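Batch job 17 of 40 flagged for manual review because the log was empty.
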Amino acid sequence: MRLIGLAVAITLNLFVAPLVGEAQPAPSVPRIGFLAPNLPTDLGAVRFLQGFRQGLRELGYAEGQNIAIEYRWAEGKYDRLPGLAAELVRLKVNLIVAGTPPAVQAAKQATDTIPIVMATVADPVAMGFVSSLAHPGGNITGLSSIQSDLVGKRLEVLKEVVPKVSLVALLGNPANPNYAPLVQQAQDSSRKLGVRLQSMEARDPSAIDNAFASVTTARAGAVLVVGDPMLLDHRTRIADHAVRRRLPTVAGSNEFVEAGVLLAYGPSLSEGYRRAATFVDKILKGAKPGDLPVEQPTKFELVINLKTAKALGLTIPQSVLLRADQVIQ
C-alpha cells in the first residue's frame, strides 16, 4: 500500500508541476514612452528614431523582445503634447524619451516622478528642465545640443558667405520653449557682427508663408532659422521660399540643407537620439536621472548646398568650403 501511495504521489507531482510552472507570470519587459512633436513620416523624425533604435541595439535591446516602446506623435500640433504625455503617464511607462523642448516641457508638466530623457535641448538650465548640467536633480536628464551657443557661429558663417548683409530675418516658433533663449543669443551675436535682426514668427505651417512675405517687405538680406521640430518638418517649404526670394539661409541641421537651404551648422540630431539610448539603459538599470550629468555634443557639422548657392548667385568662399564636413552638389 505504501508503494501504491508513493506511485500516486509521484504521478500527481508530474501533472501538477507543469501546471504550476505555466501559471507563473512572464518576466516583465521594460516599457518606455517616446513622445515627439513631429510627423512620424517626416524624414527627419525617421532619422531620429533610427538613431535611437540603433543606440538601443548597440546596448542589447530588441524592441518587442526585451523592451517595449509606446510611441506618441503630436504631428506638428504642440497643443496635443500635454494630452499625449498624460497618456504615457497613465500607462505607467518606466521612463519617457522626450527629445525636443516642447516634448520635454509637456512631459515635465505631466510627471515629476517618471524619468524623462532629453535628446536635443539647447539650454535645459535656462528652460528650467534641470538645475545644472553636472547635477540635473529632479527626474530629467539626457543631452543638450547647446544650440544657444551655436547661434552666433551660424551668423558668423552667414556673414562670411554674405559679407554685405546688414539685416537678417530670424525665423522661429515662439511656442517652442527654445525660442526665447535662442533669440536672445542671436541678438547678442548680431550686435557683435554689426547685423540687425528682424523677428518673423511662425507658430504653424501656414504662418511660414506670411513670415517670408514680411521678410520681403522689410528687405532683409538673409534668414536665420532657429531650431524647432515644426519648422524642421516643413524645411522644404522654407527652402523654396528662400530660394524664390533669393535669400541666403542658415539653419542648425543638415536636413535643412538637404531640402535646399544654403547652410547649416550644428551637432548631428540623429546622433543625439542614439546617445539618448545610453541614458535609457542606465536608468533601467537603476540610475537616478537627477544623478546623471547632462551630456553635450563633441562634434559639429558644417554643411553647404552648392546647388542652392548657384541658384542664389553666390560664390562660397574657399575658406568656408575647406571647413565644410559635407558639400551637396
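Reviewer: the log was empty due to a logging misconfiguration, but the result itself is present. The chain has two domains: 31-146+268-291, 148-266+301-328. Unflagging and moving on to job 18.
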